[in-house]
Automatic annotation (TrEMBL):
Residues 80-277 form the ATP-grasp domain. The keyword ATP-binding applies. GO terms for cellular component: cytoplasm. Gene3D superfamilies: ATP-grasp fold, A domain, ATP-grasp fold, B domain. GO terms for biological process: SOS response. One of its GO terms (molecular function) is ATP binding. This is RimK-like ATP-grasp domain-containing protein. Keywords: ATP-binding, Nucleotide-binding. Pfam families: RimK.
Length: 280
């Protein structure tokens, strides 16, 4: 990067404080001022010479994606459908229709019967439009499955079901307009989840996987119509498969793992904002 970053003491800062540092360095690189609003849920960048020119990160959404592509990415079952149509290898996600769910005309019992006829236990039941490692349930048998569906249904959550794949590492690729800006692996943490918020650790992507990994991420981003996002890919007994597509990009945890990852995280936002404000 053109200017020399003064790296923070990663051990002394919370995730939110570190993210604020990333945002401030992003603003400095672009010659903008930066404000944190609503406890950091809104990050506002302003041109100091023309305050009418301002750009906002809203809940980690920088505004490059269309509402349609963001909607597809958020809906795991719908996203799988788009990836499947585009020939992108992906973990299967099937929607279990809650009562009176208007976006599907297939009853949950019919879907379950189809899934169980093609796959075997264990399964993963999760909130169809959730994220962050929340509302995910491993089910080993019919009893577990019945309980999980009842729990999710009681909270009126959209439900998706997937066959379980055992993978020790999940790879995250940060995608922008047909390119991968950075990639890294996440080991399993608490509850055997690959979320940094759940205690997962960052590892490097093996060189022999990078080319294929990035190619799949690029194909997935294009299939969903994203301009900017995080694409999670896992290595299974069927090869590399897309697990999830995220239309928002939150680099607040990965940035603390090394100076290189901190620099890469800043570069991600600098590059994306340049696209947004047409500086590059």
């Amino acid at each position: 990067m053109p200017h020399q970053l003064m790296l923070p003491d990663f051990n002394l800062l919370s995730d939110e404080e570190l993210f604020k540092n990333v945002m401030q360095d992003t603003a400095t690189e672009l010659g903008l001022t930066m404000e944190f609003l609503y406890d950091g849920w809104i990050v506002r960048f302003t041109n100091p010479y023309d305050p009418s020119k301002r750009y906002e990160l809203l809940g980690y959404d920088i505004g490059l994606n269309s509402s349609q592509s963001s909607f597809i990415a958020k809906d795991k079952a719908m996203c799988f459908h788009y990836l499947l149509e585009a020939g992108v290898p992906a973990i299967e996600h099937f929607l279990l229709k809650p009562k009176d769910y208007k976006y599907s005309n297939e009853d949950a019992k019919v879907t379950l019967a189809k899934v169980k006829s093609h796959y075997h236990f264990p399964f993963v039941v999760k909130q169809n439009n959730g994220g962050g490692g929340k509302n995910i349930c491993f089910v080993a048998d019919d009893s577990d499955l019945t309980f999980a569906i009842a729990e999710f249904s009681s909270e009126n959550l959209e439900i998706s079901i997937s066959p379980y794949y055992d993978f020790p590492i999940e790879y995250r690729c940060t995608y922008l307009d047909g390119e991968v800006l950075m990639s890294y692996g996440k080991t399993k943490g608490e509850n055997l989840q690959n979320n940094l918020s759940k205690g997962a650790r960052v590892v490097e992507v093996p060189e022999h996987l990078k080319e294929e990994l990035h190619a799949i991420a690029i194909k997935a981003g294009k299939a969903v119509g994203l301009r900017f996002g995080n694409i999670d890919i896992v290595e299974t007994n069927k090869g590399l498969m897309v697990l999830e597509v995220n239309a928002s990009v939150a680099q607040k945890r990965v940035a603390r793992y090394s100076p290189e990852l901190y620099h890469q995280s800043v570069n991600v936002y600098v590059t994306a904002l340049r696209k947004l404000i047409d500086l590059g």
